[in-house]
Automatic annotation (TrEMBL), chain A:
This is FtsX-like permease family protein. One of its GO terms (cellular component) is plasma membrane. Pfam families: FtsX. It is a multi-pass membrane protein. The keyword DNA-binding does not apply. Keywords: Cell membrane, Membrane, Transmembrane, Transmembrane helix. Residues 64-125 form the ABC3 transporter permease C-terminal domain. The chain crosses the membrane at residues 20-37, 57-79, 104-125.
Length: 126, 260
């Protein structure tokens, strides 16, 4: 029952917050595109033509990396925070019906892990 | 009468919201007892502190001072798993806005308090069927909350509050979001459960109609108990009790001295 509950809750979360998940996916894709900029064919070709300029551009990558990591971090942070805030009422209800705090924590973690697993499978299949 | 005979004792409970300049006093020392099997109503104008009092008993709020004892145990001293156990098995809570979970069916909503405690819901099937019959919700057990009416939702919520056999059921304006017909049917069902199964119910309301089902009513005004009414059993009809409630309610606002 408990696991079934977790599964159903996370399904509901995915269904109702598609926009947030989509924006997360896009930002993570963008993050990895920037990360792999140095190894892309276009850049390798440009390097042979304009090695000076490209080398200078590639020098800036660590900075870009840091900035985009910063954004992704806050996006994930606020998306999760928003999620929890939206459901604080529901969590209060669980506590009111006698759920222990540790069990509530396990439940939220379980939902997040389940969602992560689904995301991983989607990512792997693509 | 022995102390152990009293189910719930509320002793000199004070509750203050905010600090220093923004202080609002909600409860100014409330003392009363609840006996097992009682159907106690608490009435008062909005802002009189009745919901605060109920939330203190439900451990949603901590009283600033004073004690609340359930079967002789001080509930404001509970912590952690003891508190979870108290909430899960000693009290049942009935909300004004039902508070059913949308992604669970009526049946799952009712047994949720049991499954939270890791009990096998199959074991409670008999009790579930019995409660469903009492509240007339047998044919909607497999429906989701969005598919059933407000009156049915509140009856499902009432079954959920009673499934764990709590010592006391706390109801915060259970008829507040219902129309008169559904409100009446809910109150009749609660009152029959109170009479046949001896469930103790503590209900906050400002609806005189709903209150007329109670066996005793406390009137609260400005954080103190203003008056107490007791239904004369046997003999007093509900209609007559209703009239008496209305008379007290007319006095609540200050009576004729406040008429402009």
């Amino acid at each position: 029952m408990f696991f079934d509950f977790i599964k159903r809750n996370s399904h509901k979360t995915r269904k109702e917050n598609g926009v947030y998940f989509a924006s997360l996916i896009i930002s993570i894709i963008a993050f990895y595109v920037i990360l792999s900029l140095g190894e892309q064919d276009v850049m390798l070709y440009l390097k042979t033509v304009e090695s000076d300029a490209v080398a200078r551009l590639l020098l800036m990558i660590p900075m870009l990396y840091a900035v985009s990591l910063f954004f992704v971090f806050f996006l994930v942070y606020f998306a999760n925070k928003y999620q929890l805030q939206l459901r604080s009422h529901e969590f209060g209800l669980y506590l009111m019906m006698g759920m222990k705090r540790s069990k509530l924590f396990t439940m939220i973690m379980g939902e997040t892990l389940w969602n992560g697993l689904v995301a991983l499978i989607i990512g792997y299949l693509h | 009468m022995k102390i152990s005979d009293k189910l719930l004792q509320v002793k000199e409970v004070h509750k203050t919201y905010g600090k220093e300049q923004n202080e609002t006093v909600a409860l100014k020392g409330i003392t009363f007892d609840v006996l097992p099997g009682e159907f106690l109503g608490i009435m008062g104008a909005s802002g009189s502190g009745k919901t605060t009092l109920l939330n203190c008993i439900a451990t949603m709020l901590k009283p600033t001072s004073g004690q609340i004892l359930l079967s002789g145990k001080n509930i404001s001293s509970f912590k952690g798993s003891q508190l979870a156990k108290y909430r899960g098995s000693k009290i049942g809570y009935l909300f004004q806005e039902f508070e059913l979970l949308d992604n669970l069916t009526a049946r799952e909503n009712i047994v949720l308090p049991l499954s939270i405690h890791g009990e096998n819901p199959k074991k409670q099937e008999l009790q579930l069927q019995q409660l469903a019959k009492q509240f007339d919700i047998e044919d909607i057990l497999n429906k989701f909350p969005s598919q059933i009416s407000g009156g049915q939702k509140q009856r499902v919520a009432a079954a959920r509050a009673l499934i764990s056999n709590p010592s006391i059921v706390l109801a915060d304006e259970p008829t507040g979001a219902l129309d008169t017909k559904n409100a009446k049917s809910l109150m009749q069902k609660l009152s029959s459960i109170n009479q046949t199964d001896g469930a103790t119910i503590l209900m906050v309301t400002h609806d005189a109609n709903a209150a007329s089902f109670c066996s005793r009513i406390l009137f609260i005004q400005d954080g103190v108990i203003f008056h107490e009414l007791r239904k004369k059993v046997p003999g007093e009809t509900q209609n007559f009790f209703y009239e008496r409630i209305l008379t007290v309610m007319a006095q609540l606002g200050g009576g004729s001295s406040n008429v402009l």
